[in-house]
C-alpha cells in the first residue's frame, strides 16, 4: 500500500501475487521466502509407482496387442533415466572463489552485479535461487517435482523429460481407452479375477477415474511444455521472459499515470524543502547572535 501511494510501480508489481497457474507451474513465483522441501519429489515418485502398479493390475490384462505394453515400458524407462539426470545433475551452481570477499567485490564492481548471499560476481542471465540459496547460471526456474533448479547444465534434459512425460500421459490415456473397449480379459495369470461381475464393474470405475486423472495432469504439463518450447526457440529462460513482460506491463501502467506520479513527487519534495526551510529559520531565530555573546 505504501508503494502504491508513492507510485513505486516496480515494487508494486514485484510484490503482486501471481495467478495460481503461474505459481503452480513455477513460471512466476511470488516475492517471498521459500523453504526447500522434498514433499513434491516424494509425491511424484509415489504417483509414478502407483501408475505402474495400477496399469499392471487393471489395464494390461485387457490389452491384446503386446506392443502396447512394450511401448509403455520403453517410455517408462526413458522417463526414469531423464528424471534421474534432471534430478541429480548440477544445473550450473555458481561458487565463490577462494579468497574473495564481499567487500572486495563492492570496491571493484557495481552492487547490482553482485550477489551478497553467495558473495560472487553474477554472470549475465544468472539468478539467485530462493529454494537452493545458490546462484544458478542461466537460471530458468526451480522445479520442486525434481527437487532441483533448471539452469545452463540441465535445461535441455528438462525439456526432453517433460516432453516424454507428456507423451507417456497421453499414451497411458490411450491404453485406458483401449482397455475399456475390451469386454473380456485378454491375458491370464493376473492377481485379480476379472471374470466376476463385481471385478469388471470395479475395473470400469477405476479406469474411468484414472483417465480423468491423466487429463488433469496433462493440462498443466502441456502448458509447461508449451512455455519451455517457446523458451528454447526464443533462446530465453522463463525468468527472463516473464520478468521482461512484467516490466513491460509495469511501464505501460506507469505511462498513463506518469503526470499524476510526478505531481505527487513534486508535492513531496516541496514538503521536504518547506520542512528544511522552516527548520533552518527556527535555528537562526533561536541561535544566539555574535553580538549577544
List the helices and strands and how they pair.
Layout: H1 2-5, H2 9-15, H3 20-24, H4 39-59, H5 66-88, H6 102-108, E1 114-115, E2 120-121, E3 127-129, E4 134-136, E5 141-143, E6 148-150, H7 155-180, H8 197-234, H9 238-256, H10 258-286
Antiparallel strand pairs: 1-2, 3-4, 5-6
Structural summary, described in words:
By secondary structure, the chain is mainly alpha-helical. 61% of the residues lie in helices and 5% in strands. It has helices at 2-5, 9-15, 20-24, 39-59, 66-88, 102-108, 155-180, 197-234, 238-256, 258-286; strands at 114-115, 120-121, 127-129, 134-136, 141-143, 148-150. The chain has a two-stranded antiparallel ribbon with strand order 1-2. Strands 3-4 form a two-stranded antiparallel ribbon. The two termini are 52 Å apart. Mean pLDDT is 74; it is low at 244-256, 268-287 and 289-293.
Attribute tags:
mainly alpha; two-stranded antiparallel sheet; disordered C terminus; 293 residues
Q: Helix tally?
A: 10
Shape: elongated
Taken in chain order, the helices and strands follow as HHHHHHEEEEEEHHHH
Q: Which spans have pLDDT < 50 for at least 5 consecutive residues?
A: 244-256, 268-287, 289-293
The number of distinct β-strands equals 6
Mean pLDDT: 74
Q: Which secondary-structure class do the elements indicate?
A: mainly alpha
Separation, N- and C-terminal Cα atoms: 52 Å
Gyration radius (Cα, Å) is 29 Å
Amino acid at each position: 500500500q505504501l508503494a502504491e501511494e508513492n507510485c513505486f510501480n516496480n515494487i508494486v508489481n514485484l510484490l503482486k501475487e501471481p495467478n495460481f497457474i503461474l505459481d503452480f507451474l513455477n513460471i512466476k513465483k511470488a516475492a517471498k521466502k521459500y523453504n526447500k522441501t522434498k514433499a513434491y519429489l516424494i509425491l511424484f515418485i509415489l504417483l509414478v509407482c502407483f501408475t505402474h502398479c495400477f496399469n499392471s493390475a487393471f489395464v494390461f490384462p485387457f490389452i491384446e496387442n503386446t506392443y502396447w505394453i512394450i511401448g509403455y515400458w520403453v517410455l517408462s524407462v526413458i522417463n526414469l533415466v531423464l528424471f534421474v539426470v534432471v534430478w541429480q545433475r548440477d544445473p550450473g551452481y555458481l561458487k565463490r572463489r577462494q579468497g574473495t570477499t564481499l567487500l572486495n567485490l563492492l570496491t571493484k564492481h557495481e552492487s547490482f552485479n553482485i550477489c551478497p548471499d553467495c558473495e560472487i560476481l553474477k554472470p549475465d542471465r544468472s539468478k539467485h535461487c530462493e529454494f537452493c540459496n545458490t546462484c544458478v547460471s542461466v537460471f530458468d526456474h526451480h522445479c520442486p517435482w525434481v527437487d532441483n533448479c533448471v539452469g545452463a547444465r540441465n535445461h535441455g534434459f528438462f525439456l526432453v523429460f517433460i516432453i516424454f512425460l507428456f507423451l507417456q500421459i497421453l499414451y497411458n490415456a490411450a491404453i485406458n481407452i483401449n482397455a475399456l473397449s475390451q469386454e473380456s480379459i485378454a491375458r491370464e495369470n493376473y492377481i485379480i479375477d476379472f471374470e466376476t461381475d463385481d471385478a469388471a464393474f470395479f475395473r470400469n470405475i477405476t479406469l474411468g477415474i484414472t483417465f480423468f486423472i491423466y487429463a488433469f495432469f496433462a493440462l498443466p504439463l502441456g502448458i509447461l511444455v508449451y512455455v519451455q518450447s517457446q523458451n528454447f526457440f526464443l533462446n530465453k529462460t522463463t525468468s527472463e521472459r516473464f520478468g521482461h513482460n512484467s516490466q513491460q506491463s509495469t511501464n505501460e501502467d506507469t505511462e498513463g499515470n506518469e503526470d499524476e506520479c510526478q505531481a505527487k513527487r513534486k508535492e513531496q519534495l516541496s514538503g521536504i524543502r518547506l520542512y528544511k526551510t522552516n527548520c533552518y529559520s527556527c535555528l537562526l531565530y533561536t541561535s544566539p547572535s555574535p553580538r549577544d555573546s
